[in-house]
Design a protein that fits this description.
mainly alpha
Length: 217
């Protein structure tokens, strides 16, 4: 075999492997998209691998080439969604810094979280109400991801002396609780949208409740 023939053979082999890799990635993405629909419609317990593969138009055996079981598909779906949230928050913060110096970052982060959560509210519904093994752990994971999105900014505020006396980790959880309840609201309501929900949450965080509610009559 001459060098040209050998090079051509190697190139064809690489192209073949690349096609297989793309096809595998496409099948995995289609399985996750189908799993997301089925979990959202059925809940974790009533969702079946057979229904997921039927919706993805692949055989049941193909499912097991990508995921160990239903729980792994469920967990993968959530973790990839959480990573998208992190990326959107990071992008929003970066865009804010490029626009102008001194723009407060906490509202930017809250708004970014609500925008993502509104677009992906069926994913959050699965995460917070999906059931399955360790359902409470997954719900706590949602809280962790949201709190992580806030921590760096809150720590920076504390360094600047703006949050003196606050327990930052606890404060992040308090704010996360407000955001989480806003997301839960969307499981049964479409309004307010992300901008309105962020406005309501920020109003509470910025101003708190009226002082007369805590005063003796």
């Amino acid at each position: 075999m001459n060098s040209n023939s050998q090079a051509n053979g190697q190139e064809q082999e690489r192209e073949g492997l690349a096609r297989v890799s793309r096809r595998r990635a496409r099948t995995r993405a289609e399985l996750l998209a189908a799993a997301r629909q089925v979990f959202a419609a059925r809940g974790y317990h009533d969702a079946s691998i057979a229904e997921i593969t039927e919706l993805a138009d692949v055989g049941v055996g193909t499912f097991y080439l990508h995921f160990r079981d239903k729980d792994e598909a469920f967990t993968t779906l959530l973790e990839e969604g959480f990573q998208q949230l992190r990326e959107q928050v990071t992008a929003a913060v970066q865009a804010s810094r490029e626009r102008r110096q001194g723009e407060p970052l906490l509202p930017v982060i809250v708004q970014a979280i609500f925008r993502h959560a509104y677009e992906q509210r069926n994913l959050f519904q699965i995460a917070l109400t999906g059931g399955g093994l360790f359902a409470h752990v997954r719900a706590f994971r949602v809280q962790n991801v949201l709190a992580e999105s806030l921590m760096r900014t809150l720590e920076a505020y504390q360094t600047q002396g703006l949050l003196e006396g606050y327990d930052i980790a606890l404060l992040a959880r308090f704010i996360t609780g407000v955001i989480t309840q806003g997301i839960v609201w969307w499981f049964e309501h479409d309004e307010p949208g992300p901008a309105g929900m962020a406005e309501q949450a920020l109003l509470l965080l910025r101003r708190g409740l009226p002082a007369p509610l805590f005063e003796e009559s």
